[in-house]
Amino acid sequence: MREMSIKKELIPILKSIAKDNIRSAKQIMKDLLSSKRGVVGFSICMMFFFMATIGPILRPIDPMLSLDLSKAYAPPSLEHPLGCDYFGRDVLAMIVTGSREVLLIGVLAALYTTIIALIIGLTSGYLGGKVDSALMMIADIMLTIPGFPLLLVLASTILTRAMDPFSLAAVLSITAWAGTSRAIRSQVLAVKEREFIEAAKCLGLGKFHIIFKEILPNILGYIVVNAVLGVTGAIYAEVGLFTLGIAPYSSVNWGVMLNNAIQQAGAIHSTRYMNLLAPAFFIILLQLGLITLAGGLDEALNPRLRTRE
């Protein structure tokens, strides 16, 4: 009878804790947009989202059918705001069309990385013991492997024929999960020592319930911020592979545009600089938006950083 009474007292406490920790998406968005950092990051990311989804419809281009050598290296104008490349193709249209591929691969790679890191981090942190030691040993081995040289080898052997965004994203996430999994494990170790976890165990709740209903909601903000930052790392790696000519050719990819600008007739040292600066500017702007958005999300999701009016 006493045990039943304790359980009845603990249940409302657990529900109250869950209600305080799991905030609505509407409230999170409100907190995100209440900070200057959040507004700037969200605005830039939404601009690129619309560029990738609606942009190719409003400013379409077929890289093979849009050749016009009479417009080769045409300067910026009303018709071509960023000028034309060495084949007379509109640079802005190529950047708009290429943004879809860049964002898709970056988001997919971050998603793969986060899922792998989440599974390993949650399992390792909660179970502990030999499982923890084994999983962290694997993570440590992956951390010792030079990431980008491995990507060069894998991309040159696996992705030699066709451009498959899902395959390239999988290659980019092969080593990226290790550091994130260790960070998630540390968060789990800290949360599982708190009182409400002990209360959940006293109620006889199973491991899956404790992990996914009690621990995961409390570290979800940390995971979301790391996932956004993971997109930045994936985009850098992706563009690097294309710039070096390792990944399969795609003329509208920003990395390929950088490669072509450098290769074609001294773009760095002539009036053709726009072919180099335009993709570089959009890469930097996208990364700035993602990093700023991650900072804004950290403030919105972290009670210690969130300012209250």
Write a structural description.
It is a single chain. This protein has 309 residues and is mainly α. It has a single domain, classed as MetI-like (MetI-like fold).
Summary of the model, kept short:
With 309 residues, the protein is an all-alpha fold.
Radius of gyration: 24 Å
Q: Approximately what portion of the residues adopt beta-strand conformation?
A: under 5%
Largest sheet: none
How many structural units, i.e. domains?
A: 1
- Helix amount: over 70%
CATH class: Mainly Alpha
Shape: elongated
Which architecture per CATH? Answer: Orthogonal Bundle
Per CATH, the superfamily is MetI-like
Compute the number of helices.
Answer: 13
Q: What's the helix-strand series? A: HHHHHHHHHHHHH
The whole-number mean of residue pLDDT values reads: 81
- The CATH topology name reads MetI-like fold
- Terminal Cα span: 46 Å
Q: Topology of this structure?
A:
Elements: H1 2-21, H2 25-33, H3 36-53, H4 55-58, H5 91-127, H6 129-144, H7 147-158, H8 165-172, H9 177-191, H10 195-202, H11 207-243, H12 254-263, H13 274-301
Helix pairs in contact: 1-10, 2-13, 3-5, 3-13, 5-6, 5-8, 5-9, 5-11, 6-9, 7-8, 9-11, 11-12, 11-13, 12-13
Structural features:
MetI-like fold; mainly alpha; about 300 residues; elongated
